[in-house]
Amino acid sequence: MTNEELLRRELEIFRKQRRSAKPHKRPTFSPEQRWAILQLMRLRGWSVQTTADRFVLHPNTIRLWLKAVHSESPGRLLGGVPWNRIDDAVRHAVHELRALFSEPEFGRRSIAFHLIRAGIQISPRTAQRVLREQKPRRPRRRVTLRTAIGANPQAILNPAHLNQTWHLDLTTVQVLWLRYSVTAVLDGCTRGLLRLKVFRGAPNTEDMIRLVGEAVTKHGPPGFLVTDHGCQFQKAFHAAVIALGIRHVRAPVRKPCFNGKVERFFRTFRLWLRTALLPIGIAGMQRRLDDFCNWYNHQRPHQALGGLTPGEAWAGEALPGPISFRTVDPYKPTITVERVPCRGDPRLAVVRIRVAA
Fold first, then answer.
1. Prediction pTM value
2. Distance between CA atoms of residues 196 and 170, nearest Å
3. Please, which residues bridge with residue 339 across strands?
4. Nearest to 185 by CA among 114, 262, 237
5. According to the per-residue pLDDT averaged within each range, which of 199-213, 277-291, 322-336 is highest?
6. Closest Cα to residue 48, out of 36, 32, 60, 34?
7. What domains lie within the chain, and their CATH numbers?
8. For the residues of 83-152, what is the DSSP string, one character each?
C-alpha cells in the first residue's frame, strides 16, 4: 500500500468523524484555517461543492467566505474585530456589576437597565452573553383570566395612565415570635408604591378603610381598586370605597394573577426580608419600611417600565438616549461602577455608574 493511499484513508477517518457530529457541535475553523481552505480551493481548482464535501461544510458557508474576501471589509474572515462588538470597558462594567451585586434578584435585566440609565446602550441578551449565563428556561404556561363580574379586565390590568387602577393586598411577616401584617397599595400603571404600612397582627376593615383614605388624600382617588376576597374587603369596605368615588373590583377566586402586580411586589419585598434585620417595635419597623418604600420608588429600575423607576414614571420623566460603545470606535470610555447603600441599609443597594469618554 502506497503512502498516498495511507494518507487518503487517514483523511477519510477524520471526515467520517466530522460527519457523524451534528452541525452545531462540529468544531469551527479559525480565520487562518478558512483562508487556507480558500487558497487550497483556488490552487486545486475545486468547485464550491467539492470544497464543501472535502471539509464537511455546507456550500453556502464557502460562498459566504468568498463573499467576505471580495468585500471591502473582510475582517470577519481574516480575524478582525467585528464592528458590532461592544467595548471592553462596557464588558468590564457588566462583570463588575455582577461582582458587586451578587443577589439572585439582580440578574441580566437589572444589569442592562442600570447601564441604560447611565447612558450606555446594551440589551439584557447582550449582558447575558457577556456573563456566559445561558441557562435553558422552561416555557411558562399562560393562564387565562376569568372576567371579573361588572368589570373589563383589560381596562383594569393594563391602565393607560396613573391613578387609574390601584392594587391592595397584605402579607404576613414574622420577627422572632411576633407576627405582623404588611399592607401595600400599588399603582397599576407606574408600579409606584403609594402606601406600605405594618400592623400588629391582622388588620381589620377600619384599618383598611383608613389606609385607602390616607392614600386618596395624598394622591387623589383612583378609578378602580383591586383586592381579593379577604375578610377585610367585604360589605363595609366596599361601601366606604364607593363613597370615595372608587370602583371596587374583587379578583376572581383562585386567580392571584388578577392582582399579580402587588403579588410580584411582595416577592421583591420578601427577597429583601431574607437578610434584613427588622426591629420588634411597630415604630422601628415602619421606619425600615419607609426606607424600603423610598428605595423601591426612586432607586430600583422596573422591567415593566423599560428601566424607569416608579417615581420617574409617576413624574412622566424619560431616560436619555443611550450611546453604543464599540471596540472599533476611536475614543475609549472610562466606566466607574459603585455600590452605595440607601439610607444606611446595605441590603437596599443603589447603583452608581459614571461614564467619562
1. 0.71
2. 9
3. 351
4. 262
5. 199-213
6. 60
7. 3-78 (no CATH), 88-132+316-356 (no CATH), 153-314 (3.30.420.10)
8. TTPBPHHHHHHHHHHHHH---TTS-HHHHHHHHHHTTB---HHHHHHHHT-----PPPPPPPPPPPTTS-
Q: Can you give the pLDDT at residue 135?
A: 42
Integer Cα distance of 226 and 242 in angstroms:
13
Residue type, 281: G
Structure-block grid coordinates of residue 265: 411586589
Say how far apart CA 23 and CA 28 lie, in whole Å: 10
| Lowest-pLDDT range of 114-128, 303-317, 319-333 | 319-333
Residue 4 to residues 7, 50, 313, Cα–Cα distance (Å): 5, 20, 74
Phi-psi region of 307 (alpha: psi -120 to 50; beta: other; left: phi over 0): left
Residue in the structure block whose three cell numbers are 494518507: 7
What pLDDT shows up at residue 80?
61
24: its cell numbers: 452545531
